[in-house]
């Protein structure tokens, strides 16, 4: 963490995300936490470990992506506000530092006022809502007054940054640019969220529509990816099913824009870059992907604006 500014004026910012293991040796503990304390079978562990091994060769830049985002957000907040009073902390769902650890660290540093924000721009009660619930409960225990950013999926800086990436991705197709279809994607969730009138599917479509309009995309559709293996139905169609359908309909050029993700991590580097691309190539389809946001300055400004808005009472950001 950088300069803290006036001790009595500091504002903590809890930056929350799913989390990822820091090394291949940490995969089992990570997977066990995801499974609510139940260790994975040897087959399950090998499957997940091999996925990590195939994308990073035993080195884990994935956590570094989050570290850079947190550092960049803190710098952006202090730059936009003209004050050095913002201090960012990490809070992860499935790995250390856990969400509760981040809140406790704020309290230990003497911070009394804080804002929580999740790296995912779209709200779901099962993802962002769960993060907020854990942070709020710990904040109450620690005596930290905390407000939250629920979503920022239509922030102009976010949409512009993603539209630029879509345009650049389409340019890679050269003469086939106009024939390419943009496939927006996001992490699937269990279908039961539909019974709750959860806003997640519609917010993803809103993000996709806004990007398509800004990038002047003529052909696009939305699909889901990376569903869990839980024995219950998840939102679909899955990206592989969609690719297969598009291939049978004659599509030969696809640009995947994973708008539900903001970093290079497993669901992007393996599920799209390796699995989906190989699946597409087997069907005579060229599949490309847009560059991820990571710590892009526009993305940081979208998050910083949303944090500042939540601090002043405008919860919509």
Automatic annotation (TrEMBL):
Signal peptide: none annotated. InterPro entries: Ferrochelatase, Ferrochelatase_AS, Ferrochelatase_C, Ferrochelatase_N. Pathway: Porphyrin-containing compound metabolism; protoheme biosynthesis. It is an enzyme of class 4 (lyase). It comes from the Bacteria. Transmembrane segments: none annotated. Fe(2+) binds at residues 187, 267. Keywords: Cytoplasm, Heme biosynthesis, Iron, Lyase, Metal-binding, Porphyrin biosynthesis. GO terms for biological process: heme biosynthetic process. Pfam families: Ferrochelatase. Belongs to the ferrochelatase family. Involved in coproporphyrin-dependent heme b biosynthesis. Catalyzes the insertion of ferrous iron into coproporphyrin III to form Fe-coproporphyrin III. This is Coproporphyrin III ferrochelatase. It comes from Cohnella faecalis. The gene is hemH.
């Amino acid at each position: 963490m950088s300069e803290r500014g006036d001790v009595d004026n500091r504002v903590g910012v809890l930056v929350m995300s799913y989390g990822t293991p820091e090394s291949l040796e940490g995969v089992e503990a990570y997977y066990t936490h995801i499974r609510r304390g139940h260790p994975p079978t040897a087959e399950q562990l090998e499957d997940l470990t091999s996925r990590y091994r195939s994308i990073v060769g035993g080195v884990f830049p994935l956590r570094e992506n989050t570290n850079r985002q947190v550092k960049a957000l803190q710098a952006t907040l202090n730059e936009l506000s003209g004050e050095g009073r913002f201090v960012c902390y990490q809070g992860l769902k499935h790995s250390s530092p856990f969400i509760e650890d981040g809140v406790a660290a704020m309290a230990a540093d003497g911070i009394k006022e804080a804002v929580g924000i999740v790296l995912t721009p779209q709200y779901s009660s099962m993802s962002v809502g769960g993060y907020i619930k854990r942070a709020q409960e710990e904040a109450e225990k620690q005596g930290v007054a905390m407000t939250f950013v629920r979503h920022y999926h239509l922030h102009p800086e976010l949409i512009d940054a993603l539209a630029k990436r879509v345009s650049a991705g389409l340019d890679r197709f050269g003469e086939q640019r106009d024939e390419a279809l943009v496939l927006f994607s996001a992490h699937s969730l269990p279908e039961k969220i539909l019974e709750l009138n959860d806003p997640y599917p519609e917010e993803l479509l809103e993000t996709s529509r806004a990007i398509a309009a800004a990038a002047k995309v003529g052909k696009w559709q939305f699909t889901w990816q990376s569903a869990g293996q839980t024995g219950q139905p998840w939102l679909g169609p899955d990206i592989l099913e969609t690719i297969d359908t598009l291939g049978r309909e004659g599509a030969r050029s696809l640009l995947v824009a994973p708008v539900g993700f903001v970093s290079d991590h497993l669901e992007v580097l393996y599920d799209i870059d390796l699995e989906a691309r190989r699946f597409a190539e087997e069907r005579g389809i060229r599949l490309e992907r847009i560059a991820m946001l990571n710590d892009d300055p526009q993305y940081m400004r979208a998050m910083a604006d949303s944090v500042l808005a939540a601090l002043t009472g405008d919860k919509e950001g």
